[in-house]
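Dissemination and training. As part of the outreach component of the grant, students in the summer workshop were shown how a complex can be specified as a set of sequence lines and then modelled as a single object. The example used during the hands-on session is reproduced here so that future cohorts can follow it. Participants entered these lines:
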Amino acid sequence: MPEVAIIKEITVKLAEIVGPNRVTDDDAACWAIMGGLSAEHPPISKLIVPPDIVIRPQSTEQVSQIVKLANVYKIPIVPAGGKGHPTAGALPTQGGILLDMLDMNRIVDIDEDSMIVTVEAGCFWESLRSTLAERGLRPGGLGPHGPVGAVGGGVATGTLPVDFTKYGFVSQEVEGLEVVLPLGDVIWTGSRANVHCNFAIRNVNGPDLTGVFCGSHGALGVITKVCLRIYPMPKWTLREAYAFNDYEKGLRAVREFQLTHYTSDTVCLVGQHTIAPFAPSAPPDTEIMVPILLEDGFDERLLKIKKEVCDKIAQKYGGKTLGSDAAWFVYDYFKQCHLPADSLGGPMEITGLKPTVYAAKDGKRLLEIPKTLESNFVLPFKNSTESEGMREWRGWFRALFASPHPNCLDDVLFMYFDGTDLDLGEEMLEEAHRIGDSEQDRGYAGYWIGHGKSEGMVKNWSQEYSGFVKLLKQTMDPNNIMNPGMFRIHY
Amino acid sequence: MVEQRYYERVKKPEDYSVAKAKQAEGKHPQLDKLKKEFYHCSRCGSCRDVVITAKLGEWPFFDPKLVPWLGPRERYEACPNYVQMRWDHFAPRGRMQILKALVEGWIDLSSALAENVYTCVDCGICETVCKASEATFGDPIPITTIMRAWREEIIETNPALLPPEIRDFLDNTHTYSNPWGKAKAERGEWADGTNIPKYKSGDEYLYYVGCEGSYDTRAQKAARALGECFLNAGISFGILGADESCDGGTVYRMGETGLFELLAEENMGKFKKLGVKRVVTLSPHSYDGFKNYYPVEKKEFEVISHPQLLVELIEKGELKPTKAVKARVTYSDSCFLGRYNKIYEEPRNVLRAIPGVELVEMKRNKEISYCCGGGAGNFATGIVDRIDGVNRPDRFRVREARDSGASILVVSCPGCLMRLSDAVKVEGLEGELEVREISEILRDSL
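and obtained this result:
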């Protein structure tokens, strides 16, 4: 049967499941839905293609039926949330059905006794935050930056949320998942695997199968509901920024900040290029600037004590206090709007998590800007604030995000370019892949994998681990329909 | 059962190469001019789902200005088309992606795309809430300008794709100087039986009524009310009556640049001949057209919107609202007075000057006010209404007005008046909510 006829036939059958207004094979719709944040986008990406069909289910039952139908036709199916992933977690590599989960967006239950919230996968983090805030509550990590990240997407792609210095990865906050498996069966993980149980605890009922789906990028099933931990809202907050003229000392201070577990978020800006526009008051020899955010929910005096402890740590390593305004700008930028900036035109984030900031393999410092970047991405971040903005800008900036673990920092390199220059975009994306791959080759653990960084990650997996993941995928998804190509698994 | 694995023989990334994309260069001249702008869209989705830090000062725990991302915030679906359709291709960020696909040659202009672009009501909220400016220290994406260029591209390169309603709108405006194809001779009939005078040289103001106020029976009432306010104030003014032509503001927004230029030339010539120095408009679309699109070098008149003039007359004491209008009212900002021209306070000040009026705001007001759905010609073509009944912008807006607790929904645009009056009926809110033009409520208090 010609492919167009197959697509039409599948679309008609999908319409029987969700109704005719919730499924389309319109070309424009299929291109428009590609509007995620990733630079992995045709034509500069050699990985991604538009879907053939977009569908918006409203219930787990509908998702289950869609997945079952996809198995009949062996058509790929890619679940997508807010599509805010910087390296294409939720975009098709082979066409097929894009499952737009954003209409499954209810907050199902807020259990203030167990301090667990249950939401549908398409619920925006922003909606969740806001609804909880009305009750004086918050999720741990506040989800990804920007307004459009969905909870299911954050879990499925292994997102580091805002405030992750204190709360860790999104997946660390998950207590249970409802998942539609690749053959269409629906399961609950954790305590709710017990059909008589109505509360969510993760590490019970045998193996932690919740973790199987966290970071799986939709390759092992469609997450339809998520149970997350919630916390009381902090009543007092303080922010401060420190400037260090010695990179190594600055990082040691960061490590001690992490040890205290006082800071809810620590973003370290690296290099004058990056620091200057955020903190004009920073001394010119500043190599690393470390803003911190402190909060406390029970006693304001504790907050002041925490601040004194952090000040002492900074002083011990020669840090200079820059005041709260410098920190404010950084947090305002990163939390409120850094996400839109990330993908300006077609840029790229390259991220890696490191046991230290030195490569495990060669012991060399990572945070040097590669020479190849300097040639094409010559302008420092500062220029963007001095001219007409970043519209025609080619540049980069680099930051570290401190994780909850004192030996672990997330390194992020942002690259920007004028999106109309497709040749440069293609070149930049290749460079980004090369840098990402080389980081993996040097022993770093990549996160925010997406399709963009999957190759570098997979080629460094041990043979046994690769075999295990492939076996898992093959067993669960015999037709290889769930986000095929993810983790470079082909069968 | 399909035997062959479906996905092994369909789309492959190599089908979408940079080399292929470059072959499409130059096919869309109007869009190419704005390429840098829509490629600048970072696809963050703020235009679709805007987040507003709300309840400043009400947050019990700490100052939300300090940590605004932590406090409770209002989240709205910004784009009226997205609210109706819930598809990305009807939201601004999706449309920017479609434009990229167009200029890279992956898709072609089609009648469905033409309908899509005229479904956009040109309300401009996307541009107002675009985060590109905050994130990149530059300007927001000029989405409304891009959408206009897209319409222009269709008209210039493939007018056969235009929806019939758009063709009729433009043809009628060309032939009859109004979108409904009504007789030119009838244009001034709305003023029959009133004391509203014809403009004569030396009058201070030309009262430019526009197509809606001239021909639509509901909008005619507003036109008469505004004329009565001017008569009450004793200012020297007049109308052109049957000699009035379409201002072309909406035609410009619809992308028909040639027709707009014809109308602009005609109007500027007429105004010059009559010695017109100041024009006061009833329609914000006319105001926007005269103010922003008529060529500055040839324009020999000033333009003022009617709320601006009314509040000026009240402040000077030339209009004295004395009779109480005991009602709780809410004001729906016209997109073309508000977002396009930043006139937010003047109409509210008119209402505040009326004794007995209790002005309450809808949740969405001023910069993030929700559109009635009449822009880009939709007040006449109604293309936006084809899509969805319940969440039509006008029906959505009157529900918001009802939720504000107001019994009168005040507007300052004849297009809003037409659409929202209709929506009140469709929503079954007659007797609960009345839609009135600002001139009507002011006239009643004089």
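The mean pLDDT of chain A is 82. Students were then asked to discuss how this feature might be tested experimentally.
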